[in-house]
Amino acid sequence: MDLSDYMIVVTIIAIIYAVVVREIQNRMIDRKESEEIQKESKRLSEAYKEAMKKGNKKEADKIMEEQVQLLSRMNKMMIGQLKPMIVIMMVFFALTWAIGVFNPVISDDVVVPLLDNGKGCDKLANDGIYSACYNITDGTAGKWVATFTAYNGGIEVAKNSTFFYYKNKTGDTYLEQPHGVLSVAVDKTLYEENESILLTAVPENKVDEIKVTLDRGTAFKVELPFTIPLIFFEIRNFYHPTSWFIFVSLIFSLSLSFITGRFKK
Questions:
Q1: How far apart are the first and last CA of the chain?
Q2: What is the pLDDT of residues 124-160, one digit of tens each?
Q3: Considering only CA atoms, which of 210, 262, 215 is closest in space to residue 239?
Q4: Residue 113 in 3-state DSSP?
Q5: Which of 53, 72, 117, 203 is deepest in the core (most CB within 10 A)?
Q6: What is the pTM of this model?
Q7: CATH 2.60.40 domain extents, the chain
Q8: Which among 204, 162, 161, 152 has a CA at the least distance from the CA of 180?
Q9: Tens of pLDDT along 164-215?
Q10: Fold of 108-214
């Protein structure tokens, strides 16, 4: 499966998921009961305010008793709504797991170990600078991402990434947020075929292994024809199939709700 087909498949699965979620909610959630409780709660709240305004304590106490009974009814309804939520979350995790497993951009990744033993590309043993070389013989032209991961005792302790260009530069500069402290670098920004890349990493804390994963220029990316402004940031590009899956299912679900709401009116 190539990348464009994969993107289409993820989109279709997201739409199906939105439809399935709506069907689960319609079948397992008693919307009529929910609406009745909301109306009753509003009525009692207004009646209580009116009773207190008139100084009718007896009527206010009676309304309070009704509110306690309504609260018990509301709790039962909320517990009942947990069942469909569990089913929905199980479906969600199953689909996102499958999307990750069949992600074609991972299959051609190259993993290169970095060393600090003074051999090969590493200039000096035990100087805290881990190095490796990789000779580019093929791959997709454009931006390549190098993701460095440091381990200590088999446990991941830090991750950071950088990028370079193969054959031609692009305007894409997106990188994942790092975690832990790990300084990483390549020796230049643009490489041609059969050139060797020098990859280096300097960890802040003690590590016993560092690996770098090269994506060979294949990465998931969906660019919208417009920018969606949010409170703290704007959305234009999607770099993960899971985030695209969530976005499509959310938009389609909102669209379904709007359309069905219009028909009901």
A1: 44
A2: 999 999 999 999 998 889 999 999 999 999 899 999 9
A3: 215
A4: strand
A5: 203
A6: 0.70
A7: 108-214
A8: 204
A9: 999 999 888 889 899 999 999 999 999 999 999 999 999 998 899 999 999 9
A10: Immunoglobulin-like (2.60.40)
